[in-house]
Design a protein that fits this description.
Length: 99
């Protein structure tokens, strides 16, 4: 038989544990994402310079890269719920209800 204090501490422990689990999981994903962003940045600078050299003007390569990113941003915007919002919501919900 539990008293109210015991239930409170169990609930508090579960909340702290699950919050720490979610935050640590997100932190790992953010670090990996930052590394991938740096990799992508350097790769795209090289790609832009290469395309620009191929077309005769360096800035053409950067304009083409910017256009590709604008297209990617538009596609991601169209599918933002399916690709971003729903998976993140499901991740957090699954972590919260995990025993």
């Amino acid at each position: 038989h539990f008293d109210v204090n015991s239930n409170y501490f169990i609930c508090k422990y579960n909340t702290v544990y699950k919050s720490a689990d979610i935050i640590s999981s997100i932190a790992v994903k953010v670090v990996i994402l930052l590394i991938l962003v740096l990799f992508s940045l350097l790769l795209n600078i090289g790609f832009s310079l290469w395309i620009g050299e191929w077309l005769g003007k360096t800035y053409f390569g950067f304009f083409i890269s910017a256009g590709l990113y604008l297209l990617i941003a538009f596609i991601v915007y169209l599918f933002r719920y399916r690709w971003i919002k729903n998976p993140i919501s499901n991740f957090i919900i699954n972590r919260m209800v995990k025993k």
